[in-house]
Amino acid sequence: MTTALETVRDTPFTIGERTFHSRLMVGTGKYRDNPTMVRAIEASGAEIVTVAVRRVDLDRSKEAGILHHLDPSKYFLLANTAGCYTAADAVRYARLGREAGFNDFIKLEVIGDQETLLPDVQGLLEAARILVKDGFKVLAYTNEDLITALRLEEAGVAAVMPLASPIGSGLGLVNPYGVRLIKRRLRVPVVVDAGVGTASDACLTMEQGVDGILMNTALAAAQDPPLMAHAMKLAVDAGRAAFLAGRMPRREVATPSSPVTGMLD
Amino acid sequence: MSELVQVLVNGEPRSVACGATLLGLLAALELDPRTVVVEHNRAIVRRPRLGDVTVAPGDAIELVHFVGGG
């Protein structure tokens, strides 16, 4: 069967010399239980799945590590430096993540403020430079500021990840202009990370021409996470196809869709 | 048999046998060395070397793994 999507001629989605099929990446935090998480990740079609590095619970009061639930041969596990407020901490967590994991990719976060979880761009650039020199493929979580994005690219990161809106806020894409500008000016992939709340947010984000989206709370905090994951998959595909198709120009006056000739007297 | 030394494991004081290796510490904690990463006084110790490194009084040991995150 020929579907519309088979007619889409897209460029491969490649980060750090690795090519992925799905442009949707998902996190593994905040799910009500692990079986729900596993079903949501499956429904999302995501290949890249993020994880955090934390202390082992020595009293065993909490559940075992995430690898008991996710097959590392099935998913590309992307460690993050979430919760780090300094470049030094982020570098330390990145190195532990590389040791715990299966690749040298790191989703680099250096947070600047507890209330907004907005990035500390100075610490981010400092950590990015150290980690790139150390051989990491750095995916840098940043704000939608072009100059920071350009400096990150100059530092040699594998991808720049501007936010749609603050982490876990679900406010959607607040600055489409800023994200579009970053995509237009950078050569490295641009993946929007954080802030997407529902499928229309994901679709609108992909329509800006970015290479992909990473989301977590939008799935984990949905009433039905696997169903929302399915919706997000469709939305990312729809937004990507719409971007490639090229939208019609906006006009502030109407133009008739039906012929204006041949009308009855 | 052996005397005990005090170390910090994941920020908490613990007593371990004097001369114990990091591998021995993991065994005492019933942790599979394939599922944790060990940081010993801020330096990562790779799995093959866990049996070579002995703990000393006051050492800071961090045992980490992957958990859910975004």
Task: Give a structural overview.
The complex is a heterodimer of chains A (265) and B (70). In chain A, helix 1 runs parallel beside helix 8 and helix 2 packs across helix 3. Chain A has 265 residues and is α/β, with parallel strands linked by helices. Chain A has eight helices and ten strands. In chain A, the strands form three sheets. In chain A, strands 4-5-6-7-8 form a five-stranded parallel β-sheet. A three-stranded parallel β-sheet of chain A has the order 3-10-9. In chain A, helix 2 links the parallel strand 5 and strand 6. Chain B has 70 residues and is mainly β. Chains A and B meet through strand 4, strand 5 and helix 2 of A and strand 5 of B. Strand 4 of chain A pairs antiparallel with strand 5 of chain B, so a sheet runs across the interface.
Write out key terms for the chains shown.
heterodimer, A: 265 residues, alpha/beta, 10 strands, globular, B: 70 residues, mainly beta, five-stranded mixed beta sheet, 5 strands, 10% helix
Gist?
By secondary structure, chain A is of the alpha/beta class. In chain A, 35% of the residues lie in helices and 16% in strands. The termini of chain A are far apart.
